[in-house]
Design a protein that fits this description.
alpha/beta, 5 helices, five-stranded mixed sheet, about 170 residues, about 20% strand, single chain
Amino acid sequence: MPQAPAPVVLGLDPGSQRTGYAVVTPGPGGRISLREAGTITAPAGAPVPQRLGYIFSELARLIAELKPAEMAVEGVFTAKNAHTALVLGQARGVAILAGVRAGLSIHEYPPATVKKSLVGNGRATKEQVRAMALRLVDGAPGKMALDASDALALALTHLQSRRLAATLERFK
């Protein structure tokens, strides 16, 4: 039985000021094409609720425009500052809500899993992750903001996880 084609995936690195995104499309021969990547930047100096509303609106617009089927979002991690962790959690919630409202399948990956998946080291630097992520996709620009490259790394990790699950399924 032929395997269904892998879906278009939206990777998200949520933040209350900057949210990185990347949309990838799996292609023939295991190649992955980068359709679009960037950073949603909330209005500087705006209160947190307004920043979150802006991020939600922009994500909803991007999802409607780019039509991904699945979303890979950075999982919860502990922050040194409780306030920072709380605001980041709110940004994650807004991002997940945008995906759920659009009917996307949501998948979460901890930062260390993403780093290990791409670089082979759960303590890799953001720069190392960016360098590897850009090597793994067709259509990658020469440079990319760290928020966008983190989102790209999440999308790539999700596709790798899907491939592994499909392979294991064939052995059942």
